[in-house]
Amino acid sequence: MITALHALLYSEDPEATRAFFRDVVGWPYVDAHGGWLIFRTGPSELGVHPASAPDGWSTPVHHEVALLCDDIDETVAELRARGAEFAGEVAEQGFGRVAMLVVPGAGELILYQASHPTAHDL
Question: In sequence order, what are the residues at sequence separation of 6 or more whose Cβ sits closer than 8 angstroms to the Cβ of residue 29?
Answer without folding.
Answer: 18, 21, 22, 37, 38, 39, 40
